Amino acid sequence: MPDIITRDGEIKKDNWTLVPRPEEGESLDLPEGPALIPADLWVAGKEHYQDREDIGIWMESHDEPELVADYLDALPIIAINFPKFTDGRGYSLARLLRERYGYRNELRAVGDVLLDQLQFMKRCGFDSYVLRPDKDIELAAHCLNFFSQTYQAAGDTDQPLFRRRAS
Amino acid sequence: MYVYDEYDRQMLAERVAQFRNQTDRYLAGELEEGEFLPLRLQNGLYVQRFAPMLRICVPYGMMRSEQIRRLARITRDYDKGYAHFTTRQNVQLNWPAVEDVPDILAELAEVEMHANQTSGNCIRNTTTDQFAAAQSDEIIDPRPYCEIIRQWSTFHPEFAFLPRKFKVAVNASRNVDRAAVQVHDIGLEMLYNEHGELGFCVHVGGGLGRTPMVGPVIREFLPEKDLLTYLEAILRVYNRYGRRDNKYKARIKILVKALTPEGFAEKVEAEWSQTKNSPTRLTQDAVDHIKSHFTEPGYADLQDDPQELVSARADSKGFDNWVRRNVNSHKKPGYSIVTLTMKKTGVPPGDISDRQLEQIADLADRYSFGEARVTHQQNVVFADVRQDRLLELWEALKPLGFATANLNMLTDMICCPGGDYCSLANAKSIPVAEAIQRRFDNQDYVYDLGEIDLNISGCMNACGHHHVGHIGVLGVDKKGQEFYQISLGGSSERDASIGKILGPSFAREEMPDVIQKILDVYVETRTEEEPFLDTYRRIGISPFKERVYA
Predict the structure, then answer these.
(1) Residues 6 or more apart from B245 whose CB is under 8 A from it?
(2) Are B236 and B228 in contact (CB under 8 A)?
(3) Is the ipTM of this complex over 0.95?
(4) Chain B residue set in contact with A, beta carbons under 8 Å
(5) Closest partner residue to B7 among A100, A161, A163, by Cβ?
(6) Sorting pLDDT into bands at 50, 70 and 90, what band is B19?
(7) CATH number, domain A4-166
(8) B53 to chain A nearest CA, in Å?
(9) What average pLDDT score do residues B143-163 get?
């Protein structure tokens, strides 16, 4: 399992395995140890999964948050897949899960995750990141903190700058 | 004008450092071309036909003289000594070196300028009326709202990777629309409702390009304080549901069309209902704080039409023509709005040298409280000139080539850089503009024609806004040969419309004759005082077609 980066820029060993969607007609093959499974399959089998601390889900960037909105407390971790780093839908999905539906457990970015988007991800409420393996993980902490100030409210603060300025 | 505080300065400095870091990694081979691409675009850097091109942001077109001087210095130190005004109220450098760009951005930051989000699939510079706060036909000064949008959209974490670029324009005039809001992704028209409350009429999904469209209204009245929550709702719907499979179908107009304006509005309202009372809702303090930056300059107490002006106009036909054409009325007695036309024959529309930039800065200091504005027609505006000094200003502008008295006339064309500079272009546009200017060099004839918008784009990306020209010219490529297609009847005004294609395209050398034939039909059929667009709307396209293809 690859190292992950936390929102504080720490590099951590991690043992969640992302289980790809099984082929048509095949069933889900759970690995040893904790696993991230496709969100709709978790929902379909929720009676098996909802009490398990070692089963989380991953979502596609086009998935609707309503798919899992009723079960958020039962999910120890949600990963959102960035199929390409230029696909910005994952940022909206993250904010909806965090700010609209109140998801409080771990939110992880997976897929085409590069260095220069980490701070946007952090701001939208992601708190762990699996960097694409060819990227230098040592630079992550720097890239998570290019900016010390922000104009907007987002997943990290509900106070836009115009309110902070006034106070 | 807005002046940065410590927060703005801090973020801009961090942005420059970030891009320096990214450029270093790119030059060291640690960032692939495709990974660097959106980063450099969102810092204004294109790679063009002959060299990179840097698009510098001029928020809602406003510049102080020290900023103009800094631009001049940058064009000298890092470029070939000239710059180009764009049709989005920005400024472009045509020849910077990639490795110099972080230094250029650092120099810009010293005078509170930048190139943030001037390109790429993100929220671009918000534009507005170049006569804002100086003209008399105004509901309220739109610039504070543009600045509020600028701050909200700058480095927005959710909207840095939209399906496609996104442009917002704001208009606050009652009777005219110099900001062309109906051909923007979002067009905001300011108004007071029947209860006397300030707000916005919201158009979404207008635009030019391959699929030109006039933006439908999705909300008749949005209260002032709800501006940002509502914009965020629109952007979120677009970010999640806009098409990402085909770049030519990715603009918000395609989504609005697919869902219908009503269907799109429903989605936005549903999203907004969840966030409208969030802390992103504007406060009176926040609006007042931004407004405090846009105070009136120190106007003197004067009367309209002072003796100096009246007698100078009587003495000089040239001066009188210029006042008639290039000078607009002002809300303050004794003041005028002056447009410096950058459309001298033989100079590519919008191009300006380092020396000319410095002269404009000096004149702005002397005649217009040290401020100048860029227009989407690629001209420059001095918004606050004393009428008793107009003659002096005219005398100063003449030798610089900025006093061509052709504002809004046939020869005041909008023209993109075209195939001479741009790698997207199918055809050159500047030589067409020049050939037309040379043919129609008789000022009396041009004045007699009245206001005609002639807009030229070198390809269907439509940077020259050809769809909304009364006469539009589009460069097309036919088997490697450059041809030009003509459309008639477009308008970006209140009565916005998309021009209709006249017929098969023409070779470049035919263009002046073709334009002549179109004008002949107009001159022969117009009723007294009838402008070109009205004649076209009355008689339709057929008479023009018959003459041109006879």
Answers:
(1) none
(2) no
(3) yes
(4) 5, 7, 10-11, 14-15, 17-18, 21-22, 30-31, 35, 38-39, 121, 148, 151-152, 154-163, 228, 236, 239-240, 244, 274, 278-280, 282-283, 285-286, 289-290
(5) A161
(6) very high
(7) 3.40.50
(8) 22
(9) 98
Of A15, A89, A149, whose CA–CA distance to B121 is shortest?
Answer: A89
As a whole number, the mean pLDDT across chain A is: 95
**Count of CA atoms in the C-beta half-sphere (13 A) of B527:** 5
Q: How far apart are CA B19 and CA B74, in angstroms?
A: 18
Contacts 24+ apart (CB under 8 A), B220-223: B221/B191, B221/B193, B223/B197, B223/B198, B223/B199
* Domain range annotation of chain A: 4-166
What structural domains and CATH numbers belong to chain B?
A: 6-110 (3.90.480.20), 134-291 (3.30.413.10), 307-400 (3.90.480.20), 414-548 (3.30.413.10)
E strand segments, A8-143: 11-12, 17-18, 35-38, 55-59, 77-82, 106-111, 128-129
H-only helix segments in B276-326: 284-291, 307-315, 317-326
Closest CA relative to residue B368, chosen from B355, B381, B356: B381
Residues 6+ apart with CB under 8 A from B65: B361, B362, B364, B365, B370, B371, B372
Two tokens, residue B390: 């107009």
Phi, psi of B66 (to 5 degrees): -65, -30
Of residues B35, B121, B236, nearest to A114 (C-beta): B35
Only one residue has tokens 């406003």, namely B62
Interface test with A, best of B21, B158, B252, B291 (most A CBs within 10 A): B158
Spatial distance between the Cα atoms of B364 and B366, rounded to a whole number of angstroms: 5
CA distances from A72 to A77, A78, B126, B208 (A): 9, 9, 38, 43
Q: Residues B322-369: pLDDT tens digits?
A: 999 999 999 999 999 999 998 877 778 888 999 999 999 999 999 999
Is the CB of residue B101 less than 8 Å from the CB of residue B16? no
pLDDT tens digits, residue range A66-105?
Answer: 999 999 999 999 999 999 999 999 999 999 999 999 999 9
B264 has pLDDT over 90: yes
Choose the closest CB to A165 out of B30, B31, B289.
B289
CA atoms of B6 and B13, how far apart (whole Å)? 10
β-strand pairing of B481-488 with B471-478: antiparallel
Cβ separation B280–A116 shorter than 8 A: no
- Position B439 scores a pLDDT of 94
The answer to whether the Cα torsion of B299, B303, B305, B309 is positive or negative is negative
A133's tokens = 């393996």
Q: Inter-chain contact B156–A152, Cβ cutoff 8 Å?
A: yes
Asked if B11 lies within 8 A of A149 by C-beta distance, the reply is yes
Could you tell me which residues come within 8 angstroms of residue B269 by beta carbon, excluding any fewer than 6 positions away? Answer: B219, B233
Give the DSSP letter of residue B242. S
- For A82, nearest residue in chain B (alpha carbons): B161
